[in-house]
Amino acid sequence: QSALTQPASVSGSPGQSITISCTGTSSDVGNYNLVSWYQQYPGEAPKLMIYEGSKRPSGTSNRFSGSKSGNTASLTISGLQAEDEADYYCCSYVGSGTWVFGGGTKLTVL
Amino acid sequence: EVQLVESGGALVQPGGSLKLSCAASGFTFSGSAMHWVRQASGKGLEWVGRIRSKANSYATAYAASVKGRFTISRDDSKNTAYLQMNSLKTEDTAVYYCTRPNERDAFDIWGQGTMVTVS
Known about the structure:
The complex is a heterodimer. By secondary structure, chain A is an all-beta fold.
């Protein structure tokens, strides 16, 4: 199973909005409503930000939102803040009990 | 406090074996699936495998990259999951995390990770 495709990096200025895409296939992202997004700071464990494509766990800022269209899921961060600078990973169920992550996107807040 | 604590990471030679542990607390471990995810230095996350609960027959699944070499098990009496790694390769060098999925199959609880170096 190949990793989901994410842009290696995205950037934005404070207050702006950015979107990170996560492209899979009709066998993973397009076939299941089980895409999740994770934020990871250097040296730390990942943190769940979005699950089932668009749902936020309690404690996740409403500046974070998720969506899906066809084989591509997206994470949008609005009102960008310095603390949002981190790596972001998408993850999707692939079937047969297996999962796959995206390659990760480094977000830089300018 | 809900917590996962990994242990057992070490330096091992290629072809060697190692067993990692993941001790859980603060939630009903026996009812939860448990997953392992790894991350090589400077690289992205890679799903390794998972074990389901007793109610789901302790079913396991693995990434193609580790299938046949790695085995996930659990001891519900000890609230601990394990990752047995055999025939280790240099490309298995990574930080290994255990993680618990929530009821919607998203990984909401993570351990701090344990480092495995194959060299």
